[in-house]
């Protein structure tokens, strides 16, 4: 099989039944037409929360800010972003995945730990 035929076969294998090319993995994250299974969506929400925990903790620690209001702000912001992502961007039916509570809890406790760890570490290293 020539290289040109190999590319043609790969291209044909990537096409959907409707004739469109399959989206890249990154593009899939923002496509409301893509169907998600429970584990895939849970993994995506989990890792988004971990990223938010690391970024917010690092920013909070480097500014520096202290106090419970910043912890509550992180929780509200993180939950709002997760809700906006699955409800407004992906437009998934939350009942198929166990409801809002299940989706909003995905990765929450691990992200809190990562947030507090990064906040404390950055604050300690930058300001002492």
Automatic annotation (TrEMBL):
Residues 1-24 are annotated as: Disordered. It is a multi-pass membrane protein. Residues 10-21 have a biased composition (Polar residues). GO terms for cellular component: endoplasmic reticulum membrane; mitochondrion. One of its GO terms (biological process) is mitochondrial respirasome assembly. It is found in: Endoplasmic reticulum membrane. InterPro entries: EMC6-like, RCAF1. Belongs to the EMC6 family. This is Rab5-interacting protein.
């Amino acid at each position: 099989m020539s290289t040109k035929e190999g590319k043609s076969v790969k291209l044909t294998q990537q096409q959907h039944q409707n004739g469109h090319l399959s989206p890249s993995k990154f593009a899939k994250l923002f496509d409301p037409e893509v169907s998600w299974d429970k584990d895939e969506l849970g993994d995506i929400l989990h890792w988004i929360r971990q990223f938010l925990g690391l970024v917010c903790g690092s920013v909070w620690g480097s500014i520096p800010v202290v106090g419970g209001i910043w912890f509550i702000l992180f929780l509200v912001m993180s939950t709002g972003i997760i809700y906006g992502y699955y409800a407004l961007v992906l437009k998934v039916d939350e009942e198929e995945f166990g409801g809002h509570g299940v989706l909003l809890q995905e990765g929450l406790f691990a992200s809190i730990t990562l947030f507090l760890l990064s906040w404390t570490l950055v604050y300690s290293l930058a300001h002492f």
